[in-house]
Write a structure and sequence with these properties.
By secondary structure, this protein is α/β, with parallel strands linked by helices. Helix content is 41%, strand content 10%. An eight-stranded parallel beta barrel has the order 1-2-3-4-5-6-7-8, surrounded by four helices. It starts with 6 loop residues before the first strand and ends with a helix.
Length: 373
Amino acid sequence: MLDKIHRGYIEGYYGKLLSFADRHKLLACLQGLSMDSYLYAPKDDLCHRFDWRRPYPEGWCADFAAFCVDAKARQIYVLAGIAPGLDFNFAEDEADFAALLTKARQMQAAGADALVLMFDDISDDVSVFAEAGLSEGIAHARLVNRLHTETGCPLLLVPRLYADEIDGDHAAYTADLNHNLADDVSIFTCGQTIVARTISLPDKAGTLARQLRHRTVIWDNLYCNDYCPRRLFTGPWTGRNAADPVLLNGTGLPETDKLLLGLMAGQDRLKLFAAAGIPEAFSGVEHCFWHPVFSHQSVPAYQHDTDAMLAALDHLLWKWKSPLAREWYPYLFGLKGDLLLARGEMTEERIAKTQTPVLASHLNAAQQTGTPK
């Protein structure tokens, strides 16, 4: 079934954990957009990553099983992520493998269609593999293969070097995966950078996609904001190839993520935003909510009509009332504060009230001395 994964959603971010009610709503959204996959891999689920050896409690398993039943009825594949990479003991791995297998079988029993073994965002300390007499790539490949054999379940891998900009020996790691990883395992990649400005398979998707013989699926962080939680991105889904298999890592804001999935599906942006009830006033500030700053991108001096922007923000903050408006409130309010700061219209007291003590001290000191902020 892995070759049928083409479009979907990743619950794979830090700092947010959806309710099952919200997950069911996202399934309905995916079905309405003719998408086919949902990857469950939230970094803040303790049993997924930080305390991965701990089995899921019965109540959670029942909720996840109901989620899988709903997904199957909507013809959506559920991919269940497990992230043991923080401290898996490759030198003495039997106890850890038993815990991993127990977790995998829990997800299988609940109805997951595939498993995803994840080694993203972990230490690059190769000594943990040297103690086992293995390279990092061989250790990861063998663990994936063993889990694949024991469970008989379709399996995908998120490698540690999932983007070219991550430190490591990409040539050796890729070669080891090529020579040791089972043929029918698919691999996630973010491309040349973790947040890619453009990405397409295979030429513009980084080392893994170019050199691996395995099927590659793009993990798209275009809209993800866990690394910049004061920012929100709602610009068009561009720089991607509609023919490539791509899953979108969201924000953890369910109403927002449904909107972003609509953008990914190619819906007309103006019509989509109107249907979501977003006021026309948003057009006055949407350039601040467009796309992230990409690696190696120059940032021009900011020049916009701040009077018009403040008027638009006053409408959005005080006259727009909806679930989506509540999700966007902190970002809109934060932008208003930034504009007032840039205009020199915030008193020291107001700065101290609205900013962290660290930033407030810096801003007030700069304001007193007249130095650039």
